[in-house]
Write a structure and sequence with these properties.
By secondary structure, the chain is α/β, with parallel strands linked by helices. It has two domains: about 120 residues, Response regulator (Rossmann fold); about 90 residues, Winged helix-like DNA-binding domain superfamily/Winged helix DNA-binding domain (Arc Repressor Mutant, subunit A), CATH 1.10.10. Helix content is about 40%, strand content about 20%.
């Protein structure tokens, strides 16, 4: 049996103490880790290393984490790589801005290394999961999701989704007509079993709707509860 290659993690932070701690912690879990303290060198290293996940500090000089995340999302080779923001900026607006820039998760400093490892493992697990549904293709209106090819199109045009957005859309389409609470989505899309900021769900749904453009109204907001893929398209 061929050996499974260790997952690759890129850590970008201008504080060497932080990168040293994370490198030690993640390597102890069997992960392959590269670190960089110069934000300007991060994209070049990411392109050569091709990580399975990036842990990215937000507050760095000259080039901040938000900018780097957007550069990753614009790079064809790196656009689907999950990103965790690690930052001292704990305000709600900061978290929302981070998620809207394309991040998959957001952890505030000071942080628990145990929690960070659990978040890393959770994201790696869902990013590497095959789609379990036997149905190879789902369609709602002009939205077509192909689980085998891992593609989504709207009105025949391809739509580029992150791994998290794809899984979120897949779950909503698969359970069409049934309300999915924010807590249910956190457990089934993010694999979180503990209470965290449910605004994470709202931010990802908003990003997903933007990408679905004219077909976005299929996703209904059930106020105070969660979301549902409608049986009939909701009028704008």
């Amino acid at each position: 049996m061929a050996e499974t290659k260790p997952k690759k993690i890129l850590v970008v932070d201008d504080e060497p103490d932080v990168t040293d701690l994370l490198a030690y912690t993640l390597k102890s879990k069997g992960l392959q880790v590269e670190t960089v303290n110069n934000p300007h060198a991060s994209i070049g290293l990411a392109r050569s290393f091709v990580p399975d996940l990036v842990i990215l500090d937000v507050m760095m000089p000259e080039l901040n984490g938000i900018q780097i995340c957007r550069m990753l999302r614009a790079d064809p080779k790196l656009k689907r790589v999950p990103v965790i923001f690690l930052t001292a900026k704990a305000e709600e607006n900061d978290r929302i801005q981070g998620l809207e820039s394309g991040a998959d998760d957001y952890i505030c400093k000071p942080f628990s290394t145990k929690e960070l490892v659990l978040r890393v493992q959770s994201i790696l697990r869902r990013a590497g999961e095959g789609e379990p549904a036997p149905v190879k293709q789902l369609q709602v209106g002009e939205i077509v999701l192909d689980t085998e090819r891992h593609t989504v199109s709207v009105s025949g045009q391809p739509v580029d989704l992150t791994a998290t957005e794809f899984k979120l859309l897949h779950l909503l389409m698969e359970r069409r007509g049934r309300v999915q609470t924010r807590e249910h989505l956190l457990i089934n899309v993010w694999n979180y079993e503990t209470e965290i900021e449910t605004r994470t769900v709202d931010t990802h749904v908003r990003r997903l709707r933007e990408k679905l453009a004219g077909e976005a109204n299929w996703i209904e907001t059930i106020r105070g509860v969660g979301y549902r893929m409608a049986e009939q398209k909701v009028r704008a």
